[in-house]
Amino acid sequence: MCASLSDFLRASPPPPRVAVLPDAVFFSRTVSLAAGTPRAEVVSQVGLALEALSPFPLAQLYFGYYLPPGADRVLAFASYRRRFTAEQLAEWAGAEYVLPAFAAILGCGAEPATTVVLAAPDGLTAVHWDQGPVPAVVLYHPLKPDATEDERARARAELIRSAGEARTIVDAPSPPVPQPGRSEGEVVFQAGGLRSRLPSAVAAALDVRDKADLDALARARRRDLFLWRTAIGALAACLLFAAGELALLGAGLWQSARIAKVAAQRPTVARIMEEKDLAGRIDELSTKRLLPLEMISVVSPEVAMPKNPPAIQFLRAAASAGAVNTIQIDAQTSNAGEIAAYRTAIEQTPGCERVEIRDQRTQNNVVSFKLIVTFKPGALAPATS
Amino acid sequence: MIRTLRAFFLSRFLREKLLVTGIAVLVAALWLSSIGNRAVRFVHAVRVTTSSLNEQARWLSDRAAIEASAQAAAGRLDAVRTLDTTRLLAEVSAIAVESGLKNSTSGEPKDVSNGQFSVHTLQFNVTKADWGTLKQFYLALSKRSPYIGIEQCSLQVDRANQLLLSANFQISSVEISKN
């Protein structure tokens, strides 16, 4: 199965599905055009020309035209609709192009004064180029299925003579067969040794089906292309994600190495951190002494307000080396009015940096509060007695 | 190859084209969601690891300076006068007795050491002591600074007798290894 899939992927794309119609049922005519005529107008002019040529109204014709880029005339061709059976029409349904056999070889790149003779079991078709890329005339000569070689040769000679003066005669002994193109933009046919390359837009104009049906087909093709591009986009995204998975895998290995490095360094770093903490504590012990009783003495009511000490009672005091210049005191008083004056007195004490009063609560006419006093570094001297 | 696949795809029925496209889009969406989440988590982990590595690098680069500062701090102390755990407990107890403190208890000393230096910490509690006795104890302890230091201190008025105080000290000493 792998081998067959590989073969399938290596194989060139299949040729387009083309319904090649017999030349016998078509008539053709060249129509002059002004350079740069828009496509809609080309279709209109082709329709008018064909209506003038045909005894049937345009609605009863299948028609197409050949107009390569830059041409100053168009080869129009048409066929009466009733010449095709229902079975033939059903075969057109899956076809990408439906065109007469002679239209398939129009992209053979013939030089001026060239006649191409296309052989088919039921007749011969001569396509003659006098100048430019558009043929001047397309002639058909029917042949009996049992026609001899002499009869075929005579018919060929008569066709060549009727087509016009030709310097080059090219014979295409077999009907045109679609071939895989070099790109999506061209349709290729091979008729014996003759190779015809038609741009997709030019080939689309050769299609003889109803223009409304062709529009519907074009819409379906656009929808299919959208689905194709969406699917390809999703697959491309999946490829990108696969690359991302590989990148994540590689980056994961790199990250694992980094995590291992962090783990390996952790004990050393912990030791250094401990050492720093230790150094800090030794330094604090020798240089930053905690002076709790000195701070309590400075903020005591009797010292802060010696002339009129307030009736404030300390309940609890705490200090720690983490905030070596700060003391927290839980205190209470029966006279709430004294707190503000007391605070002001402490603030005016030399060396005091900040005073905060927090958590004031009242219970049974007693106000409790927390006093937090921060001193300036070095403002307090250790007590000696 | 892509043209072959394209021709194959375009030649399928519409329902098959819709199915293939739907499956491809669904797989891509699920994969995107999965890889997106994992990528976000990975980026977060990388940032955390980078931060850890940077912090570790900072500590490692400061190692010499930290060791030097520890040496400098210890250099201010006389190794002979530094106290180990046993001597710290004995010294503090002796000061408490000399100061007249009666109701005192001490907790189990804790040690932090880097091999060269050690810091010993002791919890020392006093109950029902008057301010004067407590101050005597404090002053006697302060005289042993910097070999003995107070790291934390809390005083509380005794509920039964407001003239008496309960005190809790966290006392530390530095020991410099003599060998």
Description:
The complex is a heterodimer of chains A (385) and B (179). Chain A is α+β, with helices and mostly antiparallel strands and 385 residues long. Chain A contains 10 helices and 16 strands. Chain A has a 4-stranded mixed β-sheet with strand order 8-7-6-9, with helices on one face. A 4-stranded antiparallel β-sheet of chain A has the order 13-14-16-15, with helices on one face. Chain A has a 3-stranded antiparallel β-sheet with strand order 2-4-3. Chain A is rod-shaped. Chain A starts with a helix and ends in a 10-residue tail after the last strand. The model of chain A has no long low-confidence stretch (mean pLDDT 87). Chain B has helices at 2-10, 14-61, 63-75, 85-99, 131-143, and strands at 104-106, 110-113, 117-130, 148-157, 164-176. In chain B, strands 1, 2, 3, 4 and 5 form a 5-stranded antiparallel β-sheet that branches. In chain B, helix 4 packs across helix 5 (131-143). The longest helix of chain B is centred in the N-terminal third of the chain and has 48 residues, at 14-61. Chain B is elongated. The chains are: A alpha+beta (385), B alpha+beta (179). At the A-B interface, helix 1, helix 7, helix 8 and strand 13 of A face helix 1, helix 2, helix 3, helix 5 and strand 4 of B.
Order of helices and strands of chain B: HHHHEEEHEE
How large is the share of residues in beta strands of chain B? 15-25%
**Average pLDDT rating of chain A:** 87
Shape of chain A: rod-shaped
What is the helix fraction of residues of chain A, given as a range?
40-55%
Give the overall average pLDDT of chain B.
Answer: 88
Strand count, sense and barrel status of the largest sheet of chain B are: 5 strands, antiparallel
How large is the radius of gyration of chain B?
A: 35 Å
Number of helices of chain A: 10
Quaternary structure state of the chains depicted: heterodimer
Beta-strand segment tally of chain A? 16
Helix content of chain B: 40-55%
What class would the helix/strand composition of chain B place it in?
alpha+beta
What is the distance, rounded to the nearest whole angstrom, between the alpha carbons of the first and last residues of chain B? Answer: 81 Å
